[in-house]
């Protein structure tokens, strides 16, 4: 069976005036239009192609790579809004529909949204949904506290930023864990800080143990000082976001590290910043 919304490895069966017909092991065929031809080919060659439905609702093969995979999430832009819903640019010739029923409030032309790619089993048509939370599953977790995870930010609330964890679970980064720029659609690494009794995930952007391990922080600051000819214009009064941007750690971790370096007589703490201590 040739699967819509997925990459299929198919055999070149025959060439016609409109393109190549590709077949699966069961003899089902699909057209690869001429504009998607590989540079060289022979009858019998195997090709990996993406399958979707064209404007006439026919299965079609393409060598284009979509910006989103089936049953995955991505941050996509609205190209137009019509009578059926919003249409997204997802890298294909035919734009991807987000029906009005799958929108979290009316989408606007030109704006970007986190969406999920789904397949209608009845019509075999692909569509996107902006109601991402109904596709997130936390009942059976595939992660544990301490695990490094991939994150996609999909919404912001007074508590912090809601994130998609490993394209499967829902998590939350509390505001006090955020020290740099973060926006809807941001993709980044994080760590599972805690699994709550209700299976919700608390996420941190600091490697677990890093905050409490002064040695890596101190060595990182020393390396930065050496690269900057022995002086850096940062200290106790520096903005937390500036510290995070420059050093990749929280203000609390930074202060602890420079305190340790000062105690060990490796740096001097000055009004304007910190300086490597000269050897006596």
**Arithmetic mean of pLDDT:** 91
Q: Low-confidence segments, ≥5 residues, pLDDT <50? A: none
Number of strands: 18
**How many DSSP helices?**
3
Query: CATH class of the largest domain, anyone?
Result: Mainly Beta
Percentage of residues in strands? 35-45%
Largest sheet: 5 strands, antiparallel
Shape: elongated
| Strand neighbour order, sheet with most strands | 3-2-1-4-5
CATH superfamily of the largest domain: Nucleic acid-binding proteins
Specify Rg, calculated over alpha carbons.
26 Å
Describe the structure concisely for a colleague:
With 280 residues, this protein is mainly beta. Helix content is 12%, strand content 38%.
Task: Write up this protein.
By secondary structure, this protein is mainly beta. It has four domains: 7-62, OB fold (Dihydrolipoamide Acetyltransferase, E2P) (Beta Barrel); 73-133, OB fold (Dihydrolipoamide Acetyltransferase, E2P); 136-204, OB fold (Dihydrolipoamide Acetyltransferase, E2P); 214-276, Orthogonal Bundle (Arc Repressor Mutant, subunit A), CATH 1.10.10.10. It is 12% helix and 38% strand. The chain has helices spanning 214-227, 240-247, 251-263; strands at 7-15, 19-23, 29-33, 46-53, 59-62, 73-81, 85-89, 96-99, 112-120, 125-129, 148-156, 160-165, 169-174, 187-195, 201-204, 231-232, 267-269, 274-276. The strands form four sheets. A five-stranded antiparallel β-sheet has the order 3-2-1-4-5, with no helix packed on it. Strand 6 and strand 7 (85-89) form a beta hairpin. The protein is elongated, with a radius of gyration of 26 Å. The chain starts with 6 loop residues before the first strand and ends with a strand.
């Amino acid at each position: 069976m040739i699967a819509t919304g997925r990459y299929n490895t198919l055999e070149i069966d025959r060439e016609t005036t409109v393109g190549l017909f590709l077949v699966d092991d069961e003899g089902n065929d699909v057209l690869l239009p001429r504009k998607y031809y590989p540079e060289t080919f022979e009858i019998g060659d195997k090709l990996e192609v993406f399958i979707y439905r064209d404007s006439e609702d026919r299965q079609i093969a393409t060598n284009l790579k979509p910006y989103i995979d089936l049953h995955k999430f991505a941050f996509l832009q609205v190209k137009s809004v019509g009578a059926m819903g919003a249409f997204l640019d997802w890298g294909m010739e035919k734009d991807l529909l987000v029906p009005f029923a799958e929108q979290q409030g009316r989408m606007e032309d030109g704006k970007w949204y986190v969406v999920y790619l789904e397949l209608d089993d009845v019509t075999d048509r692909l569509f996107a949904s902006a109601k991402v939370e109904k596709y997130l599953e936390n009942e059976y977790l595939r992660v544990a506290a301490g695990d490094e995870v991939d994150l996609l930010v999909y919404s912001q609330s007074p508590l912090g930023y809601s994130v998609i964890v490993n394209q499967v679970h829902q998590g939350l980064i509390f505001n006090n864990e955020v020290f740099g720029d973060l926006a809807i659609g941001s993709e980044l690494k994080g760590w599972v800080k805690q699994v709550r009794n209700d299976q919700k995930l608390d996420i941190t952007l600091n490697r677990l143990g890093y905050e409490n391990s002064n040695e890596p922080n101190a060595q990182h600051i020393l390396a930065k000082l050496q690269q900057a000819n022995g002086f850096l214009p940062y200290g106790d009064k520096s903005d937390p976001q500036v510290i995070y941007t420059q050093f990749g750690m929280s203000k609390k971790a930074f202060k602890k590290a420079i305190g340790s370096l000062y105690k060990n007589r490796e740096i001097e703490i000055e009004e304007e910043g910190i300086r490597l201590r000269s050897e006596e």
